[in-house]
């Protein structure tokens, strides 16, 4: 009898501790969102006022050979690597990735997780299009573009949408993973891919650095909002409960 009471107390304590951890995670996410929003507002103000223009142009020029502005600095393979990396943040690759993940989640009956990925990804693309039209910042002209582009400059669509998609999928994988090391691996991989895609846009001369930074901050903000909504819904409709219903 005593063993049953002790086991029951431990289960209750474990449940309460788990709820406290979830609430703390959401609270930290909210603080992170406020901090990112403040940074974004400061950046947007400086971009609109033109205070970042000199910095942007100087950095773009520094990434090209002085005697040949159409050639980026570094070994020849680095330019081709940048082409491959920047394609990871393009609408085709990201769209196929999201479609593949949605198919996987639907086949397993994880409908709420699939809806979370769909809303986060589609919302990021829509937000990018609206913001480009609002700010209407022209593309850089200080150096030749190494990639053909046709849209406006701020924010960087590749940086924004890759941040949204990669971080959303990274957060989803963290929810599925059970080992702490695997969780950190998932989110670190998502962040690394996001940074590489955004950096490639500057290296190829198709975006100002502040376009990319703005895209990262906006994408991170949207991913945080979606994550907090998903975490709140998780309290009522957990992943384990959804799997049990699907099975």
Brief summary:
The protein is an all-alpha fold and 247 residues long. It has helices spanning 2-49, 53-62, 76-87, 91-107, 111-135, 157-176, 180-203, 209-236, 239-246; strands at residues 64-65, 68-72.
Structural overview:
The protein contains 9 helices and 2 strands. It has a two-stranded antiparallel ribbon. By secondary structure, the chain is mainly α. The longest helix is centred in the N-terminal third of the chain and has 48 residues, at 2-49. The chain has one domain (15-246). Helix 4 runs parallel beside helix 6 and helix 5 (111-135) runs antiparallel to helix 6 (157-176).
Entry keywords:
single chain, 247 residues, mainly alpha, two-stranded antiparallel ribbon, 9 helices, 78% helix, 3% strand, globular
């Amino acid at each position: 009898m005593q063993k049953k009471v002790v086991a029951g107390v431990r289960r209750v304590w474990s449940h309460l501790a788990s709820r406290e951890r979830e609430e703390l995670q959401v609270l930290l996410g909210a603080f992170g969102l406020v901090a990112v929003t403040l940074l974004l507002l400061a950046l947007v103000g400086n971009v609109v006022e033109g205070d970042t223009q000199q910095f942007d142009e100087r950095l773009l020029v520094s990434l090209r050979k002085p005697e040949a502005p159409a050639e980026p600095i570094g070994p020849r393979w680095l330019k081709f690597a940048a082409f491959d990396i920047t394609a990871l943040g393009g609408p085709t690759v990201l769209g196929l990735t999201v479609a593949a993940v949605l198919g996987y989640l639907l086949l397993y009956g994880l409908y709420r997780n699939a809806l979370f990925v769909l809303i986060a990804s589609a919302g990021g693309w829509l937000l990018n299009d609206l913001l480009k039209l609002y700010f209407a910042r022209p593309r850089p002209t200080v150096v030749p573009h190494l990639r053909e582009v046709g849209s406006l400059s701020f924010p960087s669509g590749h940086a924004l949408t890759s941040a949204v998609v990669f971080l959303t999928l990274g957060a989803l994988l963290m929810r599925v993973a059970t080992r702490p090391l695997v969780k950190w691996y998932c989110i670190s991989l998502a962040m690394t891919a996001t940074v590489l895609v955004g950096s490639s846009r500057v290296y190829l001369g198709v975006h100002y650095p502040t376009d990319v930074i703005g895209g990262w901050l906006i994408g991170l903000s949207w991913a945080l909002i979606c994550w907090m909504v998903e975490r709140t819904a998780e309290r009522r409709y957990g992943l384990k409960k959804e799997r049990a219903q699907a099975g």
